[in-house]
Automatic annotation (TrEMBL):
It comes from the Bacteria. It comes from Sneathiella litorea. It is found in: Cytoplasm. This is tRNA (cytidine/uridine-2'-O-)-methyltransferase TrmJ. The lineage of its organism: Bacteria, Pseudomonadati, Pseudomonadota, Alphaproteobacteria, Sneathiellales. GO terms for molecular function: RNA binding; tRNA (cytidine(32)/uridine(32)-2'-O)-methyltransferase activity.
Length: 253
C-alpha cells in the first residue's frame, strides 16, 4: 500500500448503520481506511454497520467519531465536499475524476486531504460546504440522479484508486507469451508453400508479392499468441493431410 497520505472519508450525520458499513466496504476495496463520522444518528459502534461491512474490519476499527464537521477536518489541508446543489456556492467544482487527480497531487506533496459526504436524506448543509475548499459533483442522468451514500463513496474512491493503479487498460487474460517473429515467419512461409503447391498464385502471379505482404500485415495486426500459431500450424497440417489422403485414394488400383 502506498506510503502517501490517503484521503479521509468523512460522513456527516449518517443516519443508517448499513450505509456506514457499505461505505467501509467500498473504501477498503480501493485502499482507503480513514473513516470519520460526525454525530452518527444511531451512535457508534453500530452492529448493523459491522454486518454490512463484509469484513472490512480495519476500516471500522479505525473509525473516529466527532461532534462537529470542523473538528473532523481540523488536521486536514484540503477538503472536498460532495454535493449536487452547487448553484448558490462559489467554489471550484470538479468531477470525481478531476478531484481524484487533485487529491493525488496533494498526497504526493504530503498534504492531508478529506472528502465530505452528507446525510442520506438531505446531504451536506450550506455550513458544511462552506468548510470545504472545493466541491465534487458527480455527472449523472439528469432524469434520475439519485445515488445512495455508499455509491457516492465508491465512485470517488474508485477514481482515487485509478490515479495510482498501474493495471494495463487492456490485457490478455492468460499466462501465454506472444508469438515471436521466428514463429510467425515460419507460419507465413508454410502458408506460402502450401498455396504454391495448390497453384493458388498461378493466375495472379504478378500480384503474389502484394498478396503475401498483405497477409503478413494482417497476421501481425492480430497479435497472435504462441498457442495461436500452433493452432494455425495444426489447421494447415490437417488440410494438407486430407488432400494427400484423397490423392492417394485416386492412385490406388
Amino acid at each position: 500500500m502506498s506510503s502517501e497520505p490517503m484521503p479521509a472519508i468523512i460522513l456527516v450525520e449518517p443516519q443508517m448503520g448499513e450505509n456506514i458499513g457499505a461505505t467501509a466496504r467500498a473504501m477498503l476495496n480501493f485502499g482507503l481506511t480513514d473513516l470519520r463520522l460526525v454525530s452518527p444518528r444511531d451512535g457508534w459502534p453500530n452492529e448493523r454497520a459491522v454486518a454490512m461491512a463484509s469484513r472490512a474490519d480495519i476500516v471500522l476499527e479505525n473509525t473516529r467519531v466527532f461532534e462537529t464537521t470542523a473538528e473532523a477536518i481540523a488536521d486536514l489541508n484540503h477538503v472536498f465536499a460532495t454535493t449536487a446543489r452547487t448553484r448558490d456556492v462559489i467554489k471550484k467544482i470538479a468531477t470525481p475524476r478531476a478531484a481524484a487527480a487533485e487529491l493525488r497531487a496533494h498526497a504526493v506533496a504530503g498534504s492531508q486531504t478529506g472528502i465530505l459526504f452528507g446525510k442520506e436524506s438531505v446531504g451536506l448543509s450550506r455550513e458544511d460546504v462552506t468548510l470545504a475548499d472545493s466541491i465534487i459533483s458527480v455527472p449523472l442522468n439528469p432524469d434520475f440522479s439519485s445515488i445512495n451514500l455508499a455509491q457516492a463513496v465508491l465512485l470517488v474512491a474508485y477514481e482515487w484508486f485509478q490515479t495510482g493503479d498501474a493495471t494495463p487498460p487492456v490485457q490478455v487474460h492468460n499466462e501465454e507469451r506472444p508469438a515471436n517473429k521466428a514463429e510467425l515467419s515460419h507460419l507465413f512461409d508454410r502458408i506460402e508453400r502450401e498455396l504454391d503447391a495448390r497453384g493458388y498464385f498461378d493466375p495472379i502471379m504478378q500480384r503474389k508479392h502484394v498478396i503475401l505482404q498483405n497477409m503478413r500485415n494482417m497476421f501481425q495486426r492480430l497479435g497472435l499468441m504462441e498457442s495461436d500459431v500452433r493452432a494455425f500450424q495444426g489447421i494447415i497440417k490437417g488440410l494438407t493431410m486430407k488432400l494427400k489422403d484423397k490423392n492417394n485414394d485416386r492412385d490406388t488400383p
